[in-house]
Amino acid sequence: MEIRTLKTFLTVAELGTVSQASRRLNCVQSNVTSRIKALEEELGIELFSRGRNGMTLTPAGTYFLDHAKAVVDAESAAIASLANFAGAVRLLRIGSMESTLAIRLPAFLSRFRATNPGVRLGLRSGPTDELVGLLLENRIDLALIGGQFRHPDLKSRIVFSEEMVLATEAGIQSPEQVGAMPLIVFKPGCSYRAYAQNWMRRSGFAPNDIIELGTLEGILGCVASGVGVTLLPRSVVEGSGHRDIVNLHQLGDQDRFIDTLAVRNAAAPENGAVDAFLDLVCGTRAASGGSLGRLLPA
């Protein structure tokens, strides 16, 4: 049973003739007649009495009328519920690297909720590779990931850039003292981990043991205790509670700036919440000068 057929039934019931119904529905009379006949055959009962002056509802047709209206009204309500969804702020599911979630996102989320009180927010943390998978499966709407990235099904926008630094215990005064100390990093798939391992090799410190931890606080706590060293964005370490008990060492590496990208699935339905959030982040970045690291065009 099709919605179109029910709409035809309701129109004929209202107007009383096939000719008038065909004009309102903008179709030929034979289509109206065939739809009504098909509906009666499907239901196994006559809905109209046919006469010279038109068509009138049978008792069965009268009984069926309210049910048909309810179905058509439900369809209209379902369509209306999504009206202007692309321009409305309704739901935003964000995936983020652990470091970005811990330091950058809280301020942005606070401002976003203040200006969009009706928003529903979902948050997930994970390494870049995991977040890309979630985007492709449409399980998140937006991912904040680090490093150069290209994928034919995703589109990205630079939101800020992070300066990578070497973080060590307070007693280490220069990178040369790192030697064979373990490297403490997030799990595989993290762009910062990849950079850290590459930098250690290029700097002649490899091979170093790898200590893999799942949280930013865990990594910095172990660094402060002298368990090992790490490479993380300057903003992340300076914004943490461990800043006063670790040393930061600036890198001479020309590639030490790593872009943070906002990435979305190009095939996903438009969601105004994503655009509203990006407008907030990029507007804040532009207004804050150098506080978000090296500024880059959106």
Structure characteristics:
11 strands; transcription regulation; LysR family transcriptional regulator; two-stranded antiparallel sheet; rod-shaped; DNA-binding; disordered C terminus; 298 residues; Arc Repressor Mutant, subunit A; D-Maltodextrin-Binding Protein, domain 2; single chain; 43% helix; 3 domains; alpha/beta; transcription; transcription cis-regulatory region binding; seven-stranded mixed sheet
Distance between the termini: 50 Å
What is the tally of beta strands?
A: 11
Helix content: 40-55%
| SSE series | HHHEEHEHHEHEEEHEHEHEEH
Number of domain modules = 3
CATH class group of the largest domain: Alpha Beta
CATH architecture of the largest domain: 3-Layer(aba) Sandwich
pLDDT averaged over residues: 87
Biggest sheet descriptor? 7 strands, mixed
Q: What portion of the residues fall into strands of 2 or more residues?
A: 15-25%
Summarize the structure in words.
By secondary structure, the chain is of the alpha/beta class. The protein has helices at residues 3-15, 18-25, 29-43, 59-81, 98-103, 105-115, 128-136, 191-202, 216-224, 234-238, 272-287, and strands at residues 48-51, 54-57, 91-96, 120-125, 142-146, 154-169, 183-185, 210-212, 230-233, 246-250, 257-265. It folds into three domains: 3-81, Orthogonal Bundle (Arc Repressor Mutant, subunit A); 86-161 and 258-292, D-Maltodextrin-Binding Protein, domain 2, CATH 3.40.190.10; 162-250, Periplasmic binding protein-like II (D-Maltodextrin-Binding Protein, domain 2, 3-Layer(aba) Sandwich). Strands 3, 4, 5, 6, 9, 10 and 11 form a seven-stranded mixed β-sheet that branches. Strands 1-2 form a two-stranded antiparallel ribbon. A two-stranded parallel sheet has the order 7-8. Helix 1 (3-15) packs across helix 3, helix 2 crosses helix 3 and helix 6 packs across helix 11 (272-287). The longest helix is centred in the N-terminal third of the chain and has 23 residues, at 59-81. The radius of gyration is 31 Å and the shape is rod-shaped. The model is unreliable at 285-298 (pLDDT under 50).
